[in-house]
């Protein structure tokens, strides 16, 4: 990634515009992930926090609050809250998925153990909760507690749905709303609530985050089949090898003839895979055009995200959020 | 357990006195552990919730609120909150401890898998959080979010402290406050807060819960060496075999000569155990009187719990709470 090119990416323009606030968020995160008694906690948290995710979710909160004219101090707390919830979820996800890599580094469950990942995740979740209580805003607490429940419910649903050929697009959407969109939408929504915006504006912010999150996750799932390993750090076909049913496969299963259905049943439902299966899966998806159809869905959700912001008056931050929606789908062909 | 004898136990008298409220709590628990989308959630939760724990923690909240003259509806929410936090902790504990049994039944991680236990625990934790937000009381939210952080911190501390011979009584107390007393004290405290009691009363309720929780955990740790397997459902020496450093051993290590220190180093710190080691451990603890000394500590904490309630005016519920403190230590000789 050259610096010139990097400067044009919307999430980097957002980061530049929100630089002072993001510095405050990072300081608050560092302060709150400390533990006087249990040094294992900051070790494990720092491993993940320092790995340099894009901090997309806290940026959404900051951008939303600023775009809505908020001038108080609590958008910093809420942004840190959102990042803590996200980090806690990642720690638990890596245990559940038995992952060995995250953001190009060994996962915490590999470097320490599953126990540490479970318990430090719990700690960060509790800390997120303390941070939001400090805002003293009950509506914000309501939104974030509901989002937390939706996230956990989506993760449990994914456990049973991911290898079940009966999983249709409706169930997929529920899982995606849980695992990704619920935190995106809550991150946007609380920015508007803390700024005292009208219900219409708050609803628009929610809708933007919801649609952006869905688009983001669909693209992630598509990248697993169409990605450039060097750019994404993921190997093509990881989801297939872990026999995870994502949108491109769900669309292919819906169009499958009997032979094709047997193929999906063997490779995904039963998880019995052989040499050449990934290539066959790609060929089947291609023959039904499901990769293109999946990308079209992602574009439609990104368009929906942009349209949601129509009630919000023009500003530099709003333009960046509009560009961000385009960028999310531009990551994949 | 005969019914005659059962009727005299203070937690059963509390259950009888709080019967209508406990029914409401159980209904709320059942309602909130449901999930429209993920049937795995109520399956796993019900396995644990139906196993029939004593519901001690929610009873403390109900007793505290009632004793303080509370007449609103939110003590039910808070009691359910406390039980959800407890249940979530148990689900994660069983994963961390790799346990196979809990309350005389196979654990959820064994019946389903670790994934389900981690994620359903997260779901219950999020649900607990929704429940307390519904009370609309920010002070209650502050208390319970702080308790959640203390619990998680204590669990992480225990990970590293449990097999470290350098763990002294001060560190043990921190672990015990985290794993047990933090929820007991918060359960009592929120009952007083919701009833609008003065700071003095709220402090007294906190102090009772804190000391009761510490006494309760010390007795649990002592029962591991002095318990009656039939009565407790635990095998004598489980903690020793899992090389967990608890108070009786910490006291024995503090009095150990060089040979004895080598013994503890091999069996606990290194976890290298042979036939006859448990008997030798019991002999060493006996020779230094550390089992008696441990019981004396439990009695002292129970006395402290009772003394804490002196600022509260006499009532039937108060008498039951006083008796409960005595009963906690009466469980072990």
UniProtKB/TrEMBL annotation, chains A, B:
Swiss-Prot/TrEMBL catalytic activity: 5 isopentenyl diphosphate + (2E,6E)-farnesyl diphosphate = all-trans-octaprenyl diphosphate + 5 diphosphate
Gene Ontology MF annotations: all-trans-octaprenyl-diphosphate synthase activity; metal ion binding
InterPro entries: Isoprenoid_synthase_dom_sf, Polyprenyl_synt, Polyprenyl_synt_CS
GO biological process, alphabetically ordered: isoprenoid biosynthetic process
Coiled-coil ranges per UniProt: none
EC number: 2.5.1.90
Keyword Ribonucleoprotein: no
Obligatory cofactor(s): Mg(2+)
Keywords: Magnesium, Metal-binding, Transferase
Enzyme class: transferase
Family label: Belongs to the FPP/GGPP synthase family.
Database matches in PANTHER family: ALL TRANS-POLYPRENYL-DIPHOSPHATE SYNTHASE PDSS1, GERANYLGERANYL PYROPHOSPHATE SYNTHASE
Function comment: Supplies octaprenyl diphosphate, the precursor for the side chain of the isoprenoid quinones ubiquinone and menaquinone.
Protein name: Octaprenyl diphosphate synthase
Designated gene of the protein: ispB
